[in-house]
Amino acid sequence: MGDYRPIDIRQGRREVAIVFEMQNAVARHIYLNRKEHVDPETFDKSTNGDSIARWDGDVLIAETVGFADDRGVTAIPGGGFRTSASTLVERFRLLPGGQILSVVSTWTDRKVFRTPHTYEY
Question: Is the pTM above the cut of 0.70?
Answer without folding.
Answer: yes
